[in-house]
Design a protein that fits this description.
Number of domains: 2
Order of helices and strands: HEHHEHEHEHEHEEEHHHEEHEEEH
CATH class of the largest domain: Alpha Beta
Structural class: alpha/beta
Number of helices: 12
Largest sheet: 7 strands, mixed
Radius of gyration: 21 Å
CATH superfamily of the largest domain: Type I PLP-dependent aspartate aminotransferase-like (Major domain)
Shape: globular
Helix content: 25-40%
Strand order of the largest sheet: 2-8-7-6-5-3-4
């Protein structure tokens, strides 16, 4: 027997999530906040981190932080759980929910980690394509729902990578019909000005995910899972005891102390998003789609693989999403600073003109 034979087939058959590294490039592929914390706030954060007792474990379950973020999201303390980014919380959901109802359903295209984590935790995964407007195909989703499937349906709101908001009535139609839980991932909600959190009071089979990663603290890896007390109590048994480190907890508290400053960055990103969208519309062969997130999804009249490689050569990194049929020759670019957006648009215009020549 080979060692590889010990690995579950679903794992070795997939390629996993790849995060490419390019030194010195304008990085616009990971949906990060382009703005860092400025002085004197940066100094204050470092001073707070300097008071962390590095020889001690972090507060297990982060009870004080949970209470503060419960107020931030307008829920009770026992309705929220913190994780090492949203990815860990997705993993906890996929590990825990394997009772009489099993499996995971995801619309496509969407955040790739839903499928990757579901497969890695031994779940059956069913993918249902979005419609031509990148909205939920409710009839197709309902056709796949059975009395024992699925335990989890993941919906990104706004959706990644398309940037649009699914129709609320379609979302509620899915919630009403599924025998399992509908997980609404609002990682990009701050850029849309919209949230579906009030659905918690209407349905007991809805769970929400959120994160600080898109708001300027990607390096801290802090995510939030919000749901009913009963389900949080069970999921908390799966959570590892010290899953959120002390520095991340300190940074999260700092975020709450100075949330107005971070809100200003969100406003700046939204303004830059509209400028970037108009800039993309002005480039021949490029079709951008309206976005409610901190990125813009666009299609090319050219081979996106060649466009991507040409952009890399120009020192600009975006996300290549050339996956037929729904995303043939499509790409996604993170909204950057004014200088980053201008550098990207200049490079894209240059490489597309060469392609069209």
């Amino acid at each position: 027997m080979k060692i590889i034979d010990l690995v579950e087939k679903g794992i070795w058959k997939q390629s996993g999530y790849v995060a490419p590294e390019f030194m010195g490039a304008v990085k616009m592929d990971a949906n990060e906040n382009p703005f860092s914390i400025q002085e004197p706030l940066r100094k204050k954060l470092l001073e707070e981190m300097g008071r962390v007792a590095f020889n001690r474990y972090p507060a297990a379950g982060a009870p004080e932080l949970r209470e503060r973020f419960a107020k931030y999201y307008g829920v009770k303390k026992d309705m929220i759980m913190l994780g090492n980014g949203s990815d860990e919380l997705i993993q906890i959901l996929c590990l825990a929910l394997k009772g009489k109802i099993k499996g995971v359903l995801v619309p496509v295209p969407t955040f790739s980690m839903y499928k990757i984590i579901a497969i890695n935790t031994g779940n059956k995964v069913v993918e249902v394509p979005l419609d031509k407007k990148f909205d939920l195909d409710v009839d197709a989703i309902l056709d796949r729902i059975k009395s024992d499937f699925p335990a989890l349906i993941f919906l990104s709101y706004p959706n990644s990578p398309t940037g649009n908001l699914f129709n609320r009535n379609r979302i509620e139609a899915v919630i009403k019909k599924t025998p399992g839980l509908v997980v609404i991932d609002e990682a990009y909600a701050s850029f849309s000005g919209r949230t579906l959190l009030p659905l918690l009071k209407k349905y007991d089979n809805v769970i929400f995910l959120n994160t600080l990663s898109k708001l300027g603290m990607a390096s801290m890896r802090l995510g939030f899972l919000i749901g009913s007390r009963d389900i949080i109590a069970q999921l908390d048994k799966v959570r590892l005891p010290y899953n959120v480190n002390s520095l991340s907890q300190t940074a999260a508290g700092f975020f709450l102390d100075y949330q107005d400053e971070f809100s200003l960055q969100v406003d700046e990103i939204v303004a830059r998003r509209e400028e970037l969208y108009l800039g993309l519309k002005g480039i021949a062969g490029i079709r951008p789609y309206p976005s409610k997130a901190n990125f813009i999804f666009f299609s090319c009249s050219f081979d996106s693989n060649r466009i991507y490689n040409s952009l890399v050569a120009e020192g600009v990194i975006v996300k290549n999403l050339n996956m037929p049929p729904l995303m043939s020759n499509c790409m996604r670019v993170t909204v950057g600073s004014k200088d980053e957006n201008e550098a990207f648009l200049k490079a894209l215009k240059k490489v597309t003109e060469k392609q069209g020549a």
